[in-house]
Amino acid sequence: VLLTQVEVDAHDPAFSNPTKYIGPIYDNDQAKTLHAEKGWIFKADGKAFRRVVPSPQPKRIVESDAIRT
After folding, report:
1. In this structure, are residues 14 and 55 in contact, taking their beta carbons and an 8 Å threshold?
2. What are phi and psi of 19, to 5 degrees?
3. Alpha carbon distance 60, 2 (integer Å)
4. Average of pLDDT values for 22-29?
5. If you average pLDDT over residues 23-46, what whole number do you get?
6. How far apart are CA 30 and CA 24, in angstroms?
7. Is 31 within 8 Å of 39 (Cβ atoms)?
8. Cα(19)–Cα(34) distance, integer angstroms
9. pLDDT class of 69 with cuts at 50, 70, 90
10. How many CB atoms lie under 10 A from the CB of residue 17?
11. Contact 19, 50 (CB under 8 A)
12. pLDDT classification of 47: cutoffs 50, 70, 90
């Protein structure tokens, strides 16, 4: 497994409008419950709902000095 950390702008508009779908689908009642319990944000995906998270543009790779080609 390779994990890469990136730096992002804290003011990137993606944080105020999350659009990246993650996880399983939920019906409306499940999405409302999870939003109330966990603060997750959901958007419609067809007839169901899915959790969405921000996907900001990366500014730089934190470990770039350690990466060799």
Report:
1. yes
2. -135, -10
3. 17
4. 98
5. 98
6. 11
7. no
8. 18
9. low
10. 11
11. no
12. very high
Residue with tokens 């390779």: 2
Angle at 62 between CA 61 and CA 66, to 5 degrees: 95
Mean pLDDT, residues 21-43 taken together:
98
Q: H/E/C letters for each residue in the chain?
A: CCCCCEEECCCCHHHCCCCEEEEEEECHHHHHHHHHHHCCEEEEECCEEEEEECCCCEEEECCHHHCCC
Average pLDDT over residues 26-54: 98
**Averaged pLDDT for residues 8-35:** 98
Residues ≥6 apart with Cβ < 8 Å to 54:
12, 14, 15, 17, 18, 19, 20
Hey, what amino acid is at 62?
V
d(CA 30, CA 15): 23
